[in-house]
Amino acid sequence: MIYLRSFKLSDHISRNPNIYPDHVFKHMAGEVLLFDKVTVLYGNNGSGKSTLLNVIANKLGISGAEPMTSYGYSLFVKQFLDLSSCQLGYDKQERELQQLPEGSRYMKSEDILYEIKKIQQASVLREGLMHEKRKNGMSKTEAEQYEGSYAFQQKVKNIQFSQEKYSNGETSMQFFEEYLLPGQLYLLDEPETSLSPANQIKLAEQINELARYLDSQFIIATHSPFVLGTLQAKIYNLDANPLQTAEWYELDNVRFFQQFFDKHRPLFDNG
């Protein structure tokens, strides 16, 4: 399912090189990105892939979008967002969608690390669980009653007990298993954070399955060769000028890994 069909970046770039986010996207002003079931935004540090994800999240108004006015350029950010545009996809009756699925969200690597930290601190864990309940419509009175209940106390204990046994990477995998659901649009910023190569591949396979069989769509910022090589995705290379798509094995970061291991091949051959 394609929920977000395309996104067009503002074609207006301020002459002032310090204006945010104009200067981040000066090399791809006015570009149109066409999205597949899984689309990857690849680029090295400073390429703008995380900023682009957040721009899209803000334009769509989905959960998890990070306010961009905190950078002190609220008027310029508003102008950039106003001059950017998006097109939603079609439903199964070929009618243009009027809105995204309610559970669609933008997940940053910081969100995952926060979940891990939340598990490590009981008070933060309790606060996080109650915040989720209130966000899902539970009244203040109901929340207070629930927080004092035996069921709530047991849930806190069970989460703490189960998570204490796992590493950060294993906790991250549990996070994705809980939050990546069928029939949603997900914007993921470097989801491989804290994951071993084996778990990076496992996560990418999970994403492939959700996209292919369970009507989810993903737009992912990553430079992990393991994720890039496993995802069945369209890949935009944000390091290229002009913006262009590429195969995963053509990307600089992947080639760097290849050259590194080729350099040390004798160690493997003699092992």
From TrEMBL:
GO terms for biological process: iron ion transport. SMART domains: AAA (SM00382). GO terms for cellular component: plasma membrane. Residues 35-241 form the AAA+ ATPase domain. GO terms for molecular function: ATP binding; ATP hydrolysis activity. It is a peripheral membrane protein. CDD domains: ABC_ATPase (cd00267). It is found in: Cell membrane. Keywords: Cell membrane, Ion transport, Iron, Iron transport, Membrane, Transport. Pfam families: AAA_21. Its main location: membrane. This is Predicted ATPase. It comes from Paenibacillus typhae.
